[in-house]
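Marked as duplicate of an earlier ticket. Keeping the data here for the record.
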Amino acid sequence: MSTPSQSENLFILTETNIAALVGQLKTLGIDRAHFTNGAYTAPQEVVVPTTLAGFQFIGDQDDTDTPFIIAVNSDKSMKAIMEEKIANGTATEAEAKAVEDQETRARKVAEPLALQNPNRKIVVVFYNEGTPNALYDGLCEAGFGMASLYKWGYGTDPRAGVIEGAENFKKTYGFPFPGDVRPLCDDLTRRGGQAGTVIVKNLRETKGPHGKPYITEKNECLIPLLHEGLLNYGKRGQGAPTPQMQGPHR
């Protein structure tokens, strides 16, 4: 099942059966993609800049129109995660009740990403498990092209949680969070060295083709933002709107 989107290049697929999902992706003409995944429970001002900066870096490494896929913890997945965190004493009942539904969490990052990348297909998929391992394993076994995976806050050093499913991808990147904060499920994630598997890039220091790093220590985008609706996610005073900037569209 696909949910309508405000952006013509954004597709939200709610099917979690792997065979059916692969069929839907093929219908969209997609047999290869760059991935990230997460719960996206934090406010937009927290999760949007990192999503935009992360995929900008990925796009700068691959000048094709390969689609971007965001895999999101489903409602079922989040219910189990929050129950475990409550049992561990790392979350409260109030925090669990405050978690938004899966589509709201997905659109929070996918809509801005679609605006930033109007010529690229942006796809949201969901997984019911605590990690995306089964999703990534299934897609890989089905012959889907797993171009790359990136995660913020995972796989960045031996103390950080591992990037689940990294073995399925041609390249896997770990980006240290601005402020080196830990993500929501850090306390539930297994540890283990991923040296040689994960390429660690600090996007607060790594410069892109635009001549600047991708994000600031204060979580502000330093990339050229291509839509007026995204300007709040950039560094204040970083410059006039780019010539490519577009207004609202559907």
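See parent ticket for discussion. The longest strand covers residues 145-152.
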